[in-house]
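Technical note accompanying the year-one report. For the benefit of new consortium partners, we illustrate the data format agreed upon in the data management plan: each record pairs a sequence with a structure-token string. No post-processing was applied to the example shown here.
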Amino acid sequence: MAGHRQCDNGLMEINPPCVVALTWTLKDSLGNMLDQLDDPVEFLVGGDDLLPAIETALQGHEAGAVLDLNLEPEAAFGDFDEQLVFLAARHLLPEGIEEGMLLEASALPSSIADGAPTGTILTITEIYPEHVVLDGNHPLAGMALRLHLKVAAVRAAGEDEVARASVGAGFFRLQAGETKR
């Protein structure tokens, strides 16, 4: 694919569009472990799979690179927005709901998440006898993050991956279906 540069050692440099296989350790600003991925997962650089700050940091590197990133909320999952927290009458929600479940706002009665952006995914954060608290913020919103990345592999992106703007990994997406700004 045109546009991909080879390094002197023959390895492909990370430049969009390409696919990177990453492992990582994700911690909050206090060093508490949030997530660890030991087996590489592929992400499209130049698509919707990665946060812009991560894509920028990866560019020009190659397989074997190790990066330590400190991401402030605005470069990660944004600030916590209280307007994305909703109270819903318990009887308006399906039976069998549990804390931590995800619901698509558009699948609920319009009165529940009035004002939620299209495609917002709501997390059930608290359940009371008469009402339920639904949160449309990303679970990591408002948090500064420490990300230790390892690039396991780099390859050219396929035409179908570029057309979809994804290889299917959505860990770093802000919301389902949301694209970068």
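Partners are asked to follow this layout when depositing records. The radius of gyration is 19 Å.
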